[in-house]
Amino acid sequence: MVTKKKTVDEAIEEVAETATGGLSGVKDSLAKAQQSMEGAKSTMQDAYGKAREGAGVAADRAKVYLDDAKKHLAEAREKMGTLAAKSRDQAEVLYANAKEQYESLSEKAMDLYAKTKKKIADVDFKEKGDEVVEYVRTNPGKAILIALAVGFVVGYATRPRD
């Protein structure tokens, strides 16, 4: 079975979708917990003004609401843990891919450096310098035009930009 490697953008998109889905579940659980807390608060406020015998019933009802809120908060914690684990797994995959690409590029750069170093070592600069001097002597007009063109290009490339 050949598995297709994900690009960094695809992996980031997948993490974003996972996070969005996980966060919506967490948001729902927290909203339910908030409703339960508000129910408990409302019940306690109702009991505050009532007689002593009704306070026990209100306290029991408030306890049910608080237990419900505890349950929903536990669900939110579990969903956040799952989301964190999925995000960590995606980050590890992205890190492994980036490391693999870095190692590959590093190896290619080292090979290219070695080849370039070998080619430069093979060049005889004294001989090349003698060839340039001879060319200038035999073709002074062309040499002046070439020098002018090179000077223009260097001047254009090194001029300050706005």
> DSSP helix count?
4
Kindly report how far apart the N and C termini lie.
Answer: 55 Å
Provide the domain count.
2
What percentage of residues falls in helices of 4 or more residues? over 70%
Shape: rod-shaped
User: What's the main sheet like?
Assistant: none
Q: What do the pLDDT scores average to?
A: 82
Low-confidence stretches: none
Structural class: mainly alpha
Rg calc: 37 Å
Q: Give the tally of β-strands.
A: 0
What string gives the helices and strands in order? Answer: HHHH
Strand % is under 5%
Summarize the structure.
With 162 residues, the protein is mainly α. The chain has helices spanning 8-49, 52-122, 125-138, 140-158.
Describe what this molecule looks like in 3D.
By secondary structure, the chain is mainly alpha-helical. The chain has two domains: 8-123; 124-162, no CATH class. The chain is 90% helix and 0% strand. The protein has four helices and no strands. The chain has helices at residues 8-49, 52-122, 125-138, 140-158. Helix 1 (8-49) runs antiparallel to helix 2 and helix 3 (125-138) crosses helix 4 (140-158). The longest helix is centred in the middle third of the chain and has 71 residues, at 52-122. The two termini are 55 Å apart. The relative contact order is 0.08. The model has no long low-confidence stretch (mean pLDDT 82).
